[in-house]
Design a protein that fits this description.
This protein is an alpha/beta fold and 531 residues long. The chain has a domain of 180 residues: Cholesterol Oxidase, domain 2. The strands form seven sheets. Strands 1, 2, 10, 11, 12, 13 and 25 form a seven-stranded mixed β-sheet that branches. Helix 1 packs parallel to helix 7 and helix 11 packs across helix 13. The model has no long low-confidence stretch (mean pLDDT 96). It binds flavin-adenine dinucleotide (FAD). The site of flavin-adenine dinucleotide has 44 residues, from helix 1, strand 11, helix 8 and helix 14.
Length: 531
């Protein structure tokens, strides 16, 4: 029988942090279990490899959402990282913390210890940011956050053009005030991806007190009464059990964590019973409340022959690959988005509620994947704090069958209204004199799409996930909350959740930074209990 003090399920963004911080204590031992492999592949290292890993089952669970009438009955492709680093190994590298009020709202909901002032030290603890303001930015952490070094001339024109619209340049959107236009900060070091594996897990697995089991799927949590004591795992088609003396920490992400809990008998017992799962503990919140960012993109065909599209095929691509291997520069070192903006949908509101991404490239059907074969530019937008909520539900009693994922995009009217406004603002940003002089025509949605109804239909037909699943095991103090503010699962013993699933509401930004912060704080909470 294998026995450890702590077992961490999942080696993604959060699992990597937990493994690192807990293994700082020499007299405890930790086992990390990861369904995927070690992810040491050039596509993971190359920032532009994003376009390859987005649908590669070696590194990605490649889920699909359930259909929904709000998105014109489409199933939407829903990637999630698999392997060391989890989603941080296939993500778009953007480092965005959100707004102070996002976290103050968490605290106002009863989650004491999670206000902006409380969690800022954890954001700082995880990062190393060159030239950051020391009041808000970290300089001793393991996660390398860098500024973009190569500024594309079309991006420069986009930013210059936005001045016409009265948009200010934002020096550091991670300093507490987001509003304005900027180049994105990225988890990239010397032109290569710097995932949670690079920052946290790599160090942890070199330590003697960490055992990592890759290509190992956790099938079920073993409970003795209400106490989590171990896991049933499978590797190479063989089942085995491992046990935790102290705690099991779930870091399987906003899809994997509720799914594992449900197949282990934790959730809505009436529903679990219907699909043949033996009940352990009723918690109706498990899997409910899933939120995600839903983006749409406006694209223009342009005259200038220097967008990224023309570099992405033939001998030019070979040249770019060589350039990356030799100098870590050029096309292959680029992230999917270069410039960003946080803007208000209306001057009356206090804080930005729309996030924009700009890329000097355009994609077939607007979806990140295949670049178009003519020069193009794209401006995408999503609502910072969507109100619609959905669910993750086990589809059977076997974890190997994908769960049903229903984010319910655009269910709430406000989410629809804000995206209509977002598309209009993308169009305005692409019509400044700097951009107009290089544009041929709008290719997406196309100039024939004019009325609010037409725009909404375009949004429903063309939007996609921005990959920011959260909230499916919500932290809170009410009866349907899954974890308490100390991240312990309510009603159970010796089990916590430390990943993106616990976020009570969506932070105004991409979710990796917030997930790392949660795991930093979780590590401290666990250490405090140990003492
Ligand atoms: C394609 C993509 C692009 C993104 N772009 C950005 C971006 O640019 N910026 C940003 O801030 N955020 C981005 N995100 C979101 C961000 O990366 C995630 O919010 C964050 O990584 C979530 O961390 P996590 O620890 O909760 O889950 P993950 O990092 O997904 O880790 C979960 C891990 O658990 C493992 N696992 C799951 N179930 C089991 C099981 N039963 N047994 C064993 N192991 C299991 C998985 O294989 C995975 O490795 C992106 C995400 C994706 C998918």
């Amino acid at each position: 029988m294998q026995n450890y003090d702590y077992i961490v399920v999942g080696s993604g963004s959060s699992g990597s942090v937990i493994a690192n911080r807990l293994s700082e204590i020499k007299n405890i031992n930790i086992c990390v279990i990861e369904a995927g492999g070690s992810n040491q592949h050039p596509y993971i290292k190359m920032p532009a490899g994003f376009i390859k890993t987005i649908n590669d089952k070696r590194f990605n669970w490649c889920f699909n959402t359930e259909k929904s009438s709000n998105v014109n009955n489409r199933e939407i492709f829903f990637p999630r990282g698999k392997g060391f680093g989890g989603s941080s190994s296939i993500n778009g590298h953007l480092y965005v913390r959100g707004q102070p009020d996002d976290y103050n709202q968490w605290a106002q909901l009863g989650n004491h210890g999670w206000s902006y002032d409380d969690i800022l030290p954890y954001f700082k603890k995880s990062e190393f940011k060159e030239n950051g303001n020391e009041d808000t930015r970290g300089k001793d952490g393991p996660l390398f956050v860098s500024d973009i070094v190569e500024k594309h001339p079309i991006c420069e024109e986009f930013i210059k053009g936005s001045k016409e619209l009265g948009i200010e340049t934002q020096e550091d959107y991670n300093s507490g005030n987001q509003e304005g236009i900027f180049y994105y900060q990225r988890t990239i070091k010397n032109g290569a991806r710097f995932s949670a594996y690079d920052a946290f897990l790599k160090t942890a697995i070199k330590r003697k007190n960490v055992d990592i089991k890759k290509n190992t799927l956790v099938l079920k949590i073993i409970f003795k009464g209400k106490k989590a004591v171990g896991l049933i795992c499978e590797r190479d088609n063989k089942e085995f059990q491992i046990y935790a003396n102290k705690e099991i920490i779930l870091c399987a992400g906003a899809i994997g964590t509720p799914h594992l809990l449900q197949v282990s008998g934790i959730g809505n017992l009436e529903y679990l019973n219907q699909i043949g799962i033996e009940p352990v503990h009723e918690n109706k919140g498990v899997g409910e409340g899933l939120q995600d960012h839903y983006a749409v993109r406006v694209a223009n065909r342009i005259k200038l022959p220097n967008s990224l599209n023309e570099k992405a095929s033939g001998y030019k691509l070979v040249f770019e690959i060589m350039k990356w291997f030799m100098f870590r520069r050029g096309l292959i070192s680029y992230s999917p988005a270069h410039v960003g903006a946080f803007l208000k949908s209306s001057p009356e509101i206090d804080f930005p509620d729309l996030q924009f991404v700009f890329t000097p490239a355009s994609y077939t059907e607007g979806m990140i994947g295949k670049l178009q074969d003519h020069p193009g530019i794209t401006c995408g937008v999503w609502q910072s704090r969507p109100q619609s909520r959905g669910y993750v539900r086990a589809s059977s009693n076997n974890i190997k069958n994908n769960p049903m994922i229903q984010p319910n995009y655009l269910k709430e009217k406000i989410d629809q209204d804000l995206l209509i406004q977002g598309v209009k603002m993308c169009r305005t940003l692409l019509k400044t004199s700097n951009i107009e002089k290089m544009s041929v025509s709008e290719t997406l949605p196309g100039e024939h799409i004019k009325s609010d109804n037409e725009i909404l239909n375009f949004v429903k037909n063309n939007g996609a996930t921005v990959y920011h699943a959260i909230g499916s095991c919500r932290m809170g103090v009410d009866r349907s909350a899954v974890v308490s503010p100390s991240l312990k699962i309510r009603g159970l013993e010796s089990i916590r959740i430390a990943d993106a699933s616990i976020m009570p509401t969506m932070p105004s930004g991409n979710t990796n930074a917030a997930t790392l912060m949660i795991a930093e704080k979780a590590s401290d909470l666990i250490k405090k209990d140990l003492n």
